[in-house]
Amino acid sequence: MPRRSVPLRRCAWAGSDDPLYLAYHDREWGRPVRDDRVLFEFLVLEGAQAGLSWITVLRKRQGYRRALHRFDYAKLARCGARDLARWMRDPGLVRNRLKLASVITNARAFEAVRREHGSFARYLWAFVDGEPVVTRRRGQRQVPATTPLSDRVAKDLARRGFKFVGSTIVYAYLQAVGVVDDHLAGCISARRAASRRRRP
Length: 200
What we know:
Blueprint: H1 19-27, H2 36-49, H3 54-59, H4 61-67, H5 73-76, H6 81-88, H7 97-117, H8 120-125, E1 133-134, H9 148-159, H10 167-176, E2 180-181, H11 188-198
Parallel strand pairs: 1-2
């Protein structure tokens, strides 16, 4: 008897008709990132998302890129009160003073990590020995809000002076940059990832 084909689907959280959301799920979420500027971008965006929906932040992503020097952490580390005041007037950003102030604080901490480890990517990926944690859970309810890994990373980031790095935010960050690949079993992106790993 021929095997019944399993219809391809996306992770439940991406079950939206919004093309921006779908493109983010299909092309970015869960794919390993080792570029420091992109890693910093997601650190900022995940912090901005706290208490909001992710689609709200995605819709402001271009505003962040414009206002924050395309997430150039070296430039942002030199920013100060005038920059913060300008950002607070910018409708293209989430205008929360603590979140925006953390951009500067985190850029400086990010630079310190780079000086110590050579790159932020090297520091971050060392938590998983350089290889993504692939889960392939069967349902969205099985995906945790935090894990022992996110606890460890969050604790170390906080020790280094980073802000908006609680374990829940950090777990979302690890998922976004592919340190943890939480695409559900049967998700179209999980299948594509498996295909990439099989290539010589």
